[in-house]
Specification:
The protein is mainly α. 74% of the residues lie in helices and 0% in strands. The protein is built from six helices and no strands. The longest helix is centred in the middle third of the chain and has 39 residues. The two termini are 67 Å apart.
């Protein structure tokens, strides 16, 4: 399914590309100019980038607190489920063979064969 979706979007992208050489050159210039403007945004807007950097630092701090809280909750749940399991399941493997010889005998017997 992934390949079909990828092929669809690639075909759509190719379909909207211009086929005229003049239009291709114009599109290339526009894309190049847009990339240049994006790369030099902070050079032109120093105040905005400094403020965004402060917001990014706050976001990272909140993300760290959230991740730490999730990790603590998961560890707490794992430890609680470990405490709820019986000791023999937790610390050692279950016994391998618990059947007695009477348990191994079948509940039915084969009928005796009569001669023909």
């Amino acid at each position: 399914m992934f390949l079909i979706r990828s092929a669809f979007w690639l075909a759509l992208l190719v379909a909207i590309l211009p086929s005229d050489p003049k239009e291709q050159a114009r599109m290339y210039q526009t894309a190049s100019y847009a990339m240049h403007r994006a790369a030099t945004f902070c050079d032109r807007n120093k105040v905005v980038c400094d403020e965004a950097s402060g917001y990014w630092d706050v976001f990272k701090a909140k993300l760290y607190v959230g991740a730490t809280m999730v990790q603590a909750l998961v560890n707490e749940r794992l430890q609680a489920s470990r405490r709820d399991t019986p000791m023999f399941e937790r610390d050692q493997p279950p016994p391998i063979d618990t059947l007695s010889s009477s348990d191994r005998r079948p509940a039915w017997e084969r009928p005796a064969r009569t001669g023909l």
